[in-house]
Amino acid sequence: MTAPAKPRRRRTRTWVTVGIALLAILGAAALTALLTSPRSGGLLDGDSTSADGAHALVSLLREQGVQVHLAGTVAEAADAAGPDTLLVVAQTRYLPAADLLARLADVDADLLLIQPSSPTRELLAPGVQRDHRPARTQPNCELRAARQAGTIDLRSATTFRALDDPRDFSSCYGGAVVRYHDGDRVITVVGASEFLQNGALTDAGNAALAMNLAGEQPRLVWYAPQRPEDDGAGSATVFQMIPQRVYWIVGQLIVVVALLALWQGRRLGPLVAERLPVVVRASETVEGRGRLYRSRRARDRAADALRAAARQRLLPRLGLTRTAGPDQILGALAAQTAMPPGHLEHLLYGPVPSGDEDLQALAHALDDIERKVAHP
């Protein structure tokens, strides 16, 4: 009577093992999805690293000293906007209706509308209307942000023109980028969003135009809603309120369960190790950032970055704290390197280089100062 019990116990142990393995795989998959997966998101999501996200632009703006606030609701965007602030409103599928969006019409901040729909444009930029002319690749305007960017492929963009006669109206790229003044505010309307996205930011001129338009104020409020906003009437469903990442994780778990079922049903051979995301070398990051600066012709920001980095590296070697002022730094450097204080001040706090050769010479000179301090 004990013989039939052995196969039963064997099957029980097998299913227990399978259950434990399933739980372990599900837990590992969920943890991996949360910790190592790309931060997916919708169109122009400031936290998204997907091709249509805007994480790269937001990161570059923060590196340039712009205080970027990612707003998730109209109320949050309105509260964060104020003087010396640029409010970016991107047209996503979750942009709320006019009755809720109307709160942004009177904020005390400049506005940048990205590919707005007709209701959004009529509410937030009443001084312009849609045009039917094709966009152009050349700026052909006096707007500094566009002239510095140069040639950009905006041929698929929506174009706009002045509705009446708004003050200081500018039209660039055949109307794909327009700007006018509304009282003390500057309102800019752009008929395309591709040049702001991660996947196209490195194309010729895109980074220059994106950073010039979005970086004109010291503070930036980025409003590109990625989920419905309840207007108080309970219009958003439970499924609409679930973050997109949850759906991605559930999809991964379904795949894991399906693979486990196939593994139990039929032997398919050994598992193949999946390659982890590639780690980008620091040199490639520096070169890429340099190309972005060069495409934007941003010698001023490049020089500021070189000088600031050199000063930060010199402070501990000179025995100074981060709060040390220019006079303390120049005095300590002059004493240790025997270089004239005036020459040191020109290198560390001087004017913007006039050309790429002068910028390269500045980099070499700063490197020489660091070597002299490190090896007196």
UniProtKB/TrEMBL annotation:
Species lineage: Bacteria, Bacillati, Actinomycetota, Actinomycetes, Mycobacteriales
Name this polypeptide is given: DUF4350 domain-containing protein
InterPro entries: DUF4350, TonB_box_CS
Domain DUF4350: 47-213
Pfam (any one): DUF4350
Organism: Mycolicibacterium fallax (Mycobacterium fallax)
UniProt-listed PROSITE patterns: TONB_DEPENDENT_REC_1
